[in-house]
Amino acid sequence: MVSMMRLSRTLLAFGLPLTTQAVLAGYTFEDGNLKGEANLTAGGAILSTRQVNFGAGRIDLRSRRNDGTKIDWQEFYLKPGVKLEYALQPDFSLLAGGSLVAATTLGDGDAGGFTRRSDGEVSTEEFYGGFRAGEWTFTAGRQNYMIGTGFIVMDGDLDQFKDGAYWLAPRTAFKESALLAWDHGALKTQAFSLRTDGDLGDFRMTGANLDYNLADQVTLGAMAMKVNALGPKGATPLRRDGMQVYNVRALNAKVPGVPALTLNAEYAVERGHGEGVDYDAEAWYAQADYAFENVPLTPIIGYRYTHFSGDDNLADNRQASWDPLSKGYVDWGTWLVGDVVGNYLLFNSNENVQQFSLKTHLNETLTLGTIHYQFWLDEKNYMGAAVNDRRFADESVVFLDWAPSRALVTSLSYNWVKPMAAAKQVFGDDQTFSALEMSFTYRY
Ligand SMILES: [Ca+2]
Ligand SMILES: [Ca+2]
Questions:
Q1: Are 18 and 8 in contact (CB under 8 A)?
Q2: Could you tell me the maximum CA-CA distance found in the chain, to the nearest angstrom?
Q3: Which residues have CB less than 5 Å away from ligand 2 (the ion)?
Q4: Are the C-beta atoms of residues 297 and 323 closer than 8 Å to each other?
Q5: pLDDT tens across 324-334, in order?
Q6: Any signal peptide, and if so, which residues (predicted)?
Q7: Whole-prediction pTM value?
């Protein structure tokens, strides 16, 4: 379907719909019944972090070595792709597509210890075939798929270790997947079966999703799926075999008489049992954004509260921690909650977050924004260790996104995190963990 990554950060900033990315067709060609597109995406980032882990230092996840508090690194990737459609009849076409990702990490490796200087490789990203018959589409293989805003299902591949480019995260495709979609105007529904990569825990999600656009006033959605763990038992901290996930959402809701106000909300539960535990977790958010269209710089102010349940008893047979499964990334804070906290410290489980945002448009191509996040643990434990206080940290970011053309998107940001009681206790330090980030994405 669509792959957003950091490209869409600015598209969303300009209030363009997600489908705008379809406009970014690369080199297109048509020959009789065959039409296709070849495209190339290139991305790069230069990152500089200080007082990593609040002064406790960066821990390499593989060697457990502490590499100090000053971590600087660079990431690059290239992603060439091709899409083909061959019409056998006016209403029936064969479809095929594929792409490669070549990524690398240079310098000290990322601040979370997920990648090192030498990490990076070339691998197949998408590779699928299928057909379109009227309003029906069937595709199978390696492909991208996203539900809603990527709250639960979007990124099927965790970019870590030998993948390289942890922060840019160019890999998102699901493996050994099948997708049957019915696109009937305002009503869109899909049946899916998707396998994630081993870094994410190697599991399969099988279910169905439905979206209904109600007169452009709100898009209502619902999803139900089952999770099967395919990797070795105990390979991930959270168990998930046999889990059932149910999700309802209302996105881009307009309030009658208040066109400047946009509301978004979603609610999800994880139920069922397997691997000796009962699943009993929940996650939800509610967000309001207000756009001042007639004020200089057309500011948009926003507030969001997000809850990812935690587990008050890690020793019993009830797993109450929300499992983020294959959450994705579409824009600042969604669903990488805090560029520092979300990348290196908390991963959408056992977490409550208040988010205050302000975005302004300096001109057609420049967006200046700021976001302030306040983090609490939902239950008094962090990665399995007990803590005395729920208040975890505050993160702030100031970002400048520059999109001189539809093809090129660049971003400069400064992010800083102040530890609160829980983070101070966990890391034994109280410095401000900061990150200066510069990145670009170019798509032909
Ligand atoms: Ca990824
Ligand atoms: Ca429990």
A1: yes
A2: 69
A3: 311, 313, 316, 318
A4: no
A5: 999 999 999 99
A6: 1-25
A7: 0.93
